[in-house]
Amino acid sequence: MATMNMLQAINNALDVKLAEDPDVLVFGEDVGYFGGVFNATKGLQEKHGLTRCFDTPISEGGIIATAIGMGAYGLRPVPEIQFADYILPAFDQLVSEAARLRYRSNGEFWAPLTVRSPYGGGIFGGQTHSQSPEAIFAHITGLKTVIPSNPYDAKGLLIAAIEDDDPVIFLEPKRLYNGPFDGRHEEVVKTWAGHPNADVPAGNYTVPLGKAAIVRPGADVTVIAYGTMVHVAQAGIDDSGVDAELIDLRSIVPLDIDTIVASVRKTGRCVILHEASRFGGFGGELSALIQERCFYHLKSKIERVAGWDTAYPHAFEWDYFPGPARLSEALKRSMEA
Amino acid sequence: MAKKKTPKLHLHIPVPAARPGDTPTFDHIPLSPAGQVLRPKIDTQEEQLRNFPYELIRVLDDAGQAVGPWVPKVSADFLRAGLRSMLKTRVFENRMFAAHRQGKTSFFIKSTGEEAISVAQSMALESDDMCFPTYRFSGWLIARDYPVIDMINQIFSNEKDPLKGRQLPTLYSARDYGFYSLSGNVGSRFGHAVGWAMASAYKNDHRIALGLIGEGTTAEGDFHEALTFASVYKAPVILAVTNNQWAISSFSGIAGAEQATFAAKALAYGIPGLRVDGNDFLAITAATRWAAERARNNLGPTLIEFVTYRASGHSTSDDPTKYRPADEAQHWPLGDPIERLKTHLIFQNEWSEEQHTKMEEELSASIRATQKEGEAVGTLGNSKPSVSEMFEGVFKEPDWRVIEQRREFGI
Ligand SMILES: Cc1ncc(C[n+]2csc(CCOP(=O)(O)OP(=O)(O)O)c2C)c(N)n1
Predict the structure, then answer these.
(1) Is residue A145 scored above 90 in pLDDT?
(2) Which end of chain A, C or N, has fewer beta carbons within 10 A?
(3) Residue where a domain stops, chosen among A165, A200, A235
(4) Domains and CATH numbers, chain B
(5) Chain A contact present for B1, CB below 8 A
């Protein structure tokens, strides 16, 4: 057991898999010698060799296409896309190929890749280093989408994703890499040291895909979040004084519908929080599912707190970011109704 | 089984000539002596031009003389203006880089060592041509006297930011100066240059387009798609690769430089490909004029590779000593573009060290004063445009979502 930040936990998961499985390959823009622009792959080339962790041309479509080919051959590629905003040039490969290969070939070929990519805002990255594209992947049948919120989960989920035989989009909340950011941006930056989920066991362990975590049990309202927003939700709940139950989805596909339904049937109220813009966001799907399954238990309308329906604006980072204050207002609205 | 007759396969991973601690070398980069490469007529058939991607068009020799068939017709005033814009670009960028270190902005990117390309191309093309730049092209704006204060306000995302705080620092947009809107994703505007040029041709206009892309980004589909369209429609466009040897930490071999030059990508598309000394203001001017003349005369597109060197880190987020020798820049065989043009002008008796020092002092003072002016408006976080700007410009007319969300936000 060691205290790790999220980057170290991710690096450690890759290290464990590279060591135990010669079919695991790690590659992407700047991931080799340099170790990635966020250091997630630091030291892996030196330790495991040039052909196990290497740089690729700047071609996201090419990265994913070749990863699919390698996966079809029998390898377990773990490509990195430098920022989730830059997954889009690879979208066709993910949607028409990775997601469909098993189905259309009747199981003759499949694509067991894990696409790692930092996502989300809060770093003054502007329009193209801040987006949260999870909903567009959730919409694609055949893709799994995983989003950890702490170092322990990051390692366990990443190992589970790599060992999974289907394609997984593994979105890393970059604002959480070095500390559990809760949206209170004026405060001193916290580190992971001392956080209970920063104790990361050595070696191989998995956190199963499709199993949500109840971060905070509560009686009055269910709050659903993932990634950075888990920490923002905790802050918002603390501010509001409401006895909320906080669910960290950990993966949005597969989705732990049972945990969600059990919680909302208990509380009768629900607030959904995500950083991505609201319209067509994953909150819409969650809201529909809950309405379908918990309609007669609901005491108030389902609230969605999300980014505005604009691009991520550089100067207005904190006006855009759905912080604790907006969540706590939504909690009050949910409780008053 | 083939297994027995053939050797075991192995996976090739390119590695650069030198990493930190090694002695830098650029012996692998083929150079031609200045003045050696012929200058073909603009209507020369493409099949006669197929060796050009493996030559290097150079005008300025090591002594600072302009030699050979590519010497462009330019006045000393023109060259002094070019020198001034390059130096202004460098002074400006160094100050903004320092401003980032002082917490005045979130991000900055410099073009140090590559100023000749943006400045010479800006001066070689017409005011109504359109450039589709990379983020290393602020020299284009400076050469056209774009107000430096507007760049600084954009970099500080302050109340007077012409892009209303919506865009990352340095990702300018300046339509009136022939400078197309930049974005953080690399490569995606290369095809826009071709489309713009096709539109000009369709309208029987006289305007041409210039598209820029980094050598690393030639790996993107955007590059190849743009070349295909440019070739098929004989679009009046200049497509330029700035090969500065590095793409963040990845050397040019990761983009295919071990196998072919970037100019040679033109061969398969059947268009001329020139390889040009990117630190030679005169060679850039001459090659750009050649390609522009072809474009304006319905002779179609040209691909130009500018061979240069990224003398600084990738951006404020980068430390290049982590992946390349710290003294690599000193070994770069094509020198520094400002020094080279200065040497040439001095050689011609059109300039002096004293004049140069004076110009540098004057530019430093004026940029410093403009920076103060920007700081008086505000730096990142202590001044910003009205927050209503966050909701503007999504569509021409806001739809109900934005209207409702503005209300929810309280404005
Ligand atoms: C589509 C996309 N992929 C990845 C990135 C991240 N990125 C930003 S700059 C850069 C390197 C570009 O190198 P090059 O094209 O050689 O241009 P240079 O920076 O050297 O001028 C990368 C990979 C990006 N901005 N956009």
Answers:
(1) yes
(2) N
(3) A200
(4) 46-380 (3.40.50.970), 387-411 (no CATH)
(5) no
